[in-house]
Amino acid sequence: MTKALYKIASIPGDGIGTEVIPVGQRAADAAAAKHGFSIEWTEFDWSCERYAETGRMMPEDGVETMKAFDAIYLGAVGWPGVPDHVSLWGLLIPLRRELDLYANVRPVRLLKGVSSPLAGRGPEDIDFIVVRENVEGEYSEIGGRIYSGTEQEMVSQQAVFTRRGTDRIMDYAFRLAQNRKRKHVTSATKSNGIVHTMPFWDERFAEVSKKYPEVETAQFHIDILTAHFVQHPDWFDVVVGSNLFGDILSDLGPAVAGSIGIAPAANINPEGVYPSMFEPVHGSAPDIAGQGIANPVAAVWTAAMMLDHLGEKDAAQTLETAMEAVLSDPASRTKDLGGTANTKVCGAAILKHIER
Ligand code: NAI
Ligand code: MG
């Protein structure tokens, strides 16, 4: 259901997050104005900088605070000096888990004006979506270590797959495929080596697929699947994977489509009980932070995914069209894409295209 006003929480985070998120916000505002709605942004300073001052990435009631919003727009968190597991488990993971953002969605599309590291591939060859299970699977807190530091030292970590969790991520992938031209879902598995959870994953995939007779299916073991991403990206439409396999594929995917500086991602609660969270794939990029040269396109594409999720399809399309137009011009592309623009110039070009 669309609204006249959306309340969106913005969390720029660390490093280039604070440089690209404002560009995405201005672009979203311009698209909103064009299509007759508006956005009320509330900014939160949750970050490693805040951690250094307060000992927490976000306040204790942080997750609760987010529930009042229609969506969350996040830059990146992580900064040298704060261990990555602290920033991840202090902010991203609690938000993903407690808001039940169980579908992590990353579109992989080779855009015009961007060259793929794969020789001879064009926009018609690379257009798929990776759907990753985002709240259970291999990333569990169950396990432990005993006899630390001795010869008998032993560690174990348990993967957890529930029927509910497995079925709902597969349902999400199939519903997504139903609305796409190719109508095809590939499952990432490893049932030859992992003999309990992955055969279960395969069983559920076969079972859930029966509900979607018009959608074709394929499945590959994760090892050969990564090779196929590189050698046959044209085989894929929607690819569904567990938390770990999906994590790997959702970094490999954007890599074959060119630059991490353009790749968007969404953490979705499909039922809409809680706000969904939208973030570029890239991190805080300490190596270029503060120089004003970060590519803002990933943040803009991410904002387009957010507007699309909120039901504002036309506004989302406006953002995508603007971003593609800008990428085809070297004078408005950033350096990571072989252009000459900085963040400001690229952002201004996107804005100008939206407003015309
Ligand atoms: P990164 O994505 O920040 O950077 C990887 C490389 O890509 C760097 O050379 C960087 O300059 C370049 N790059 C990334 N985004 C770019 C953009 N928009 N324009 C131009 N170049 C861009 O990954 P890295 O270096 O592994 O991680 C840095 C920090 O970010 C770490 O603390 C990590 O934990 C955190 N991180 C956070 C994520 C999140 O908040 N979801 C995701 C990935 C990393
Ligand atoms: Mg990852």
Automatic annotation (TrEMBL):
Pfam short name (any one): Iso_dh
Cofactor(s) recorded in Swiss-Prot or TrEMBL: K(+); Mg(2+); Mn(2+)
E.C. code: 1.1.1.83, 1.1.1.93, 4.1.1.73
Catalytic activity: (2R,3S)-tartrate + NAD(+) = 2-hydroxy-3-oxosuccinate + NADH + H(+); (2R,3R)-tartrate + H(+) = (R)-glycerate + CO2; tartrate + NAD(+) = 2-hydroxy-3-oxosuccinate + NADH + H(+); (R)-malate + NAD(+) = pyruvate + CO2 + NADH
Alphabetized InterPro entries for the sequence: ICDH/IPMDH, IsoCit/isopropylmalate_DH_CS, IsoPropMal-DH-like_dom, TTC_DH
Superkingdom per UniProt: Bacteria
Gene Ontology molecular function, alphabetical: D-malate dehydrogenase (decarboxylating) (NAD+) activity; magnesium ion binding; NAD binding; tartrate decarboxylase activity; tartrate dehydrogenase activity
Family that this chain belongs to: Belongs to the isocitrate and isopropylmalate dehydrogenases family.
Organism this protein belongs to: Denitrobaculum tricleocarpae
Biological pathway: Carbohydrate acid metabolism; tartrate degradation; 2-hydroxy-3-oxosuccinate from meso-tartrate: step 1/1; Carbohydrate acid metabolism; tartrate degradation; D-glycerate from L-tartrate: step 1/1; Carbohydrate acid metabolism; tartrate degradation; 2-hydroxy-3-oxosuccinate from L-tartrate: step 1/1
Annotated ranges, domain Isopropylmalate dehydrogenase-like: 7-350
Record's function text: Has multiple catalytic activities. Apart from catalyzing the oxidation of (+)-tartrate to oxaloglycolate, also converts meso-tartrate to D-glycerate and catalyzes the oxidative decarboxylation of D-malate to pyruvate.
UniProt keyword list: Manganese, Metal-binding, NAD, Oxidoreductase
Protein name, per record: D-malate dehydrogenase [decarboxylating]
